Amino acid sequence: LDRCADTLIGSVLSPGLSGGEMKRTAVAVELISSPSLIFLDEPTSGLDSHNAFELVKILRGLAEAGCTIVCTIHQPSSEVFDLFHRVMLLRYGQMVYNGPVEGVAEHFAAHGHHCKPNYNPADFAMTTVQRITDEEAQPLIQTVQSVVKEGSEIEGVSSAASGMWDSNPAPFVTQFRHLVKREFYQVLRDEMTLMSRFGMAIVLSVIIGLIFMGAGDEWGDARTSGDVEKEVNNHWGALVFISINTMFLSAEPLLLVFPLERPVFIREYITGTYGTSAYFLAKTMIDVPVAFFEQLVGLIAVYFLVDYQGDFFLHVLALTLLAIVSGSTALLLGASTTRAETAVNLVPAIYVPQILFAGFFITSDAIPVFMRWIQWGCFLKYGVALSTIVEFSEKNLPDNNTAASDVVATLVHDSSINRDHWWIYTLIMLAAFVGIRSIAAFVLAKKARDFE
Description:
The chain is mainly alpha-helical. It has helices at 19-30, 49-64, 78-81, 104-109, 121-131, 134-147, 158-161, 172-189, 191-211, 215-218, 225-255, 257-270, 276-306, 312-336, 340-356, 379-391, 402-414, 422-449; strands spanning 37-41, 68-72, 86-91, 94-100.
């Protein structure tokens, strides 16, 4: 595989490895954790005779080193067939031979089926078992049954099978290092997704910025209370829509991560290639920087159009916190469902209440008492609270406009925001990020263990 080390695996729609290279890659992946037993389903299919021989030769070397190799084989050449230690031939689910490769021709000859000189015994055996009648096959089957009693152990297999899931996983640091590298390359190589994420963030931010153009500076010059209230609401509306935009854009690309990656994760988790903690930490190490730069690029497009008054990088950090919590919620949603369609259909049930209970369109006091508690579980509320504190801090309010200060104070109060509690909001967002990701890791690990 050295020659194709820098080639993408590929898919039906994108070019990549050839069929033979993909087959060899699948075998190589199973060898990473040094398992005690490997079962391969036709590992030589799609390979030419030379590569098939080299692959089986490597498998034989592993077998001689103590690893039990069990595989089905499709039309092996004579040299490939000769590499196997034992062979089991089946006819409609019944064994017609089970023993050393060297004894195939002798076994069939003992029952009147002679293999010609210089003839591939594998081809001969397969052709014979398909041509003979049920009556002619009975002597072959009965001979095997007399040697291998029903329910008895096959030599060399039973001891390995008892520990077939035992593996030698790499240390956590090694797992983490390689998974981070894989996630990094996966993000870079998926250029279409990366460009769409950043492109959508820029386009939507520009649209919001054009709609709310100059809203961040006009209210300071308004004199009447009515004008001040209108301009402050416009200013705050820009903050709210940027936050809602961030919430949905951050959830969308991560929603289908697990439904699409689950088959690969389950296979590699069961074989002991890596653990859930290393897998999730590696994803987090890549997701957080991507979320930060996505908010950085998106905010550049809207910050100067709206004419924000708050610190630029504090705004970026507040939106990044909102983005990683929203993305983590999408990961949990994807990990909890088995189908991508189900995850997509559940999005409104999770994200629409964020908007309803965050206090944007109805004050917290106006929400029915028995439902009011839901607002404290809405991460969007805390994200907007942080952005509001950054934008409407006292140093950003006009000194010569008392009406503006009063309207802002009323807005902050009605939204249940306390400027002194910015660190509490930050801790809540960080705790939600860690907690939601931990639950997602637990759910995914449980689903993987169900396949063991």
